[in-house]
Amino acid sequence: MTTLSIIKADTGGFVGHCEVHPDMLVAATTAVETAIAQGLLIDGKVSRCGDDISLIMTHDHGPDAEPVHTFAWETFLRTTEIAKQLGLYGAGQDLLSDAFSGNLRGMGPGYAELEFTERASEPVICFLADKTEPGAWNLPLYKMFADPFNTAGLVIDEKMHDGFRFEVYDLYEEKRITFDTPRDSYDLLMFIGAPARYVVHSVESIKLGVPAAATSTQRLSLIAGRYVGKDDPVMIVRCQSGLPAVGEVLEPFSFPYAVAGCMRGSHHAPIMPVGLAQATPARFDGPPRVVALGFQITGGKLIGPRDMFADPSFDRARSQANEAMDYFRGHGPFEPHRLPLSELEYTTMSALEAKMADRWEPMPPVPATRAPV
Ligand code: F6R
Ligand code: MG
Ligand code: MG
Questions:
Q1: Which residue ranges of the chain lie beneath pLDDT 70?
Q2: What residue numbers does the annotated binding site for dihydroxyacetone phosphate cover?
Q3: Burial, 29: exposed, middle or buried (Cβ in 10 Å; 0-12, 13-18, 19+)?
Q4: Would you state the pLDDT for residue 353?
Q5: I need a labelling partner for 58 at 20 to 30 A (CA). Which of 174, 319, 337, 359 fits?
Q6: Which of 162, 170, 207, 227 is catalytic?
Q7: Is the peptide bond preceding residue 249 cis, with omega within 30 degrees of 0?
Q8: What positions does UniProt annotate as the active site of this protein (predicted)?
Q9: Atom of ligand 1 nearest to the CA of 89
């Protein structure tokens, strides 16, 4: 069995929250190369989207493995040091705890991990997003694995016809549930249509009984109990041979759907599919970005990446995202551009409520002269 792990963290932004400094990428790459040489990892690549570094690693330790999580944590400590030396913004932002004890759960960095038996040919797409939250994967995952208008294979391919099993986490109450599509599609949509709370954690093929997709599902704001940035999620999707084709996996991103995040983690904005060169959210700290790195995995080796969205067929999605951004920005501080109060990351509201407390009065009574109804 091979395990593919993407472990990511924002350990400092260049400039502001825009990008990762090249020196940090060099340090992370050196660490990964050392871990391969020492036999901890079979292979590994370092990438980034916006201000988040992603370590994309193959190994045979399984998910949640202490040595792999420890390696990632130590690598992020190293990139934090560099961010501090260079005076970069928010150095060590996602490393929430001083007391790391072998597993990253609740520690700040996000991770998506998938353990599988390698097929004769193993095409995989690693998605990395910045300025949004884990629920941002709900819509594209539904389209890839449950919408025949997106994925022709659901109708045409006999191996896909039985559908897919979605595992959904309730991030508020820390519980999980599974739905089999197409049978439970409408039930599934009722939940995952509320992506701030219900997040698809994994998907598997019902017919083949194999894992197909995994996402990072932490919510930093809930972990830390205070605002520490959106959690900028990652996702792994296996493709082809009874799973959605590469083109079916990329297709949902041809529509720049609205996600929560962007400026101060507090706005709805369109998600823009981009090549790595454009994964640098600038306007209003956005619009949120997603990159898709394609790999062929063979004997655990990561052959790639191919920068899948660096392709003219996504130009229209990018231009629609810019138009949608103008439309949302036109609302300024009004919903639905600004998130509803319950979802706001920066909560000046409680302070404001206290400050205004003695200025509120009851509404005027109904005038006595008016005839009772
Ligand atoms: C969003 C994000 C940025 C910051 C914003 C303010 O996820 O990281 O939009 O929230 O740039 O940053 P601070 O409060 O650090 O000045
Ligand atoms: Mg940041
Ligand atoms: Mg980020």
A1: 221, 223-230, 345-347, 370-373
A2: 17, 131, 264, 285
A3: middle
A4: 86
A5: 174
A6: 227
A7: no
A8: 10 (proton acceptor), 227 (proton donor/acceptor), 230 (schiff-base intermediate with dhap)
A9: 15
**If residue 44 lies in a helix (H) or strand (E), which one and from where to where?**
strand 43-49
Ligand 1 centre from 329 Cα, in Å?
17
Residue 97: what pLDDT?
A: 81
Amino acid (one-letter) located at 276: L
Question: Which residue shows structure tokens 């899948």?
Answer: 308
pLDDT, tens digit, for every residue of 262-285?
999 999 999 999 999 999 999 999
Residue 238 CB-density burial (10 A; 0-12 exposed, 13-18 middle, 19+ buried): buried
Rg (the chain; Cα; Å): 22
Name the catalytic one among 169, 198, 230, 307.
230
Query: What does the alpha-carbon distance between residue 77 and residue 71 come to, in Å, rounded to a whole number?
Result: 10
User: Are 215 and 5 contacting, i.e. CB atoms less than 8 angstroms apart?
Assistant: no
Ligand 1 test: best mutation among 52, 133, 263, most atoms within 8 Å of CB? 263
CB 247 near ligand 1, within 6 Å: no
Domains of the chain from N-terminus onward: 1-114 (3.30.70), 117-365 (no CATH)
198 is catalytic: no
Q: Please say if 186 is a catalytic residue.
A: no
Can you give the pLDDT at residue 310?
98
Q: What pLDDT score does 203 carry?
A: 98
* Active-site choice (8, 10, 147, 169): 10
- Give the per-residue pLDDT at 180: 98
ipTM reported for the complex, 2 dp: 0.97
pLDDT for 99 equals 79
Query: Which among 285, 338, 346, 347 is the best mutation to test ligand 1's pocket, defined by most ligand atoms within 8 Å of the CB?
Result: 285
Distances 67 to 52, 116, 134 between C-alpha atoms, Å: 22, 19, 25
Ordered alpha helix ranges (H), 3-123: 22-37, 66-85
13 lines ligand 1 (CB under 6 A): no
Which pTM value belongs to this model?
0.96
Centre of ligand 1 from the C-alpha of residue 82, in Å: 20
Residue type, 37: A
